[in-house]
Design a protein that fits this description.
Layout: H1 8-13, H2 17-20, H3 25-35, E1 40-42, E2 52-54, H4 66-78, H5 82-94
Antiparallel strand pairs: 1-2
Helix pairs in contact: 4-5
Length: 101
Amino acid sequence: MARRRSKKTSARSTRGWRSVAPHLRSEKEALYERCGAKAFLAPNKRDPGKSKFPVMAKHGPCEVDCRGLRAAKSRAAQYHHGKAKAKANRLGKSAACHWSA
């Protein structure tokens, strides 16, 4: 019999990200201004408010948050952004996130 994976695995690894993630355009612009293009998996230089898949918290140090990286990776996979997903895998390994392979 095949073993099914628990859906709670990804929920635990992203718990708390929703409250620190930049949702609004103004929050994304402020994050881009403060941390630069490295704060997003798909940055937009012309219009920083349209940058996609944030991996850093809207407040705090300019460091990759493993919870945000996991959320950005799964969202990039849902939207079929292969380059962003591959970038998330590389960042996960370099940031030593526990979920990266």
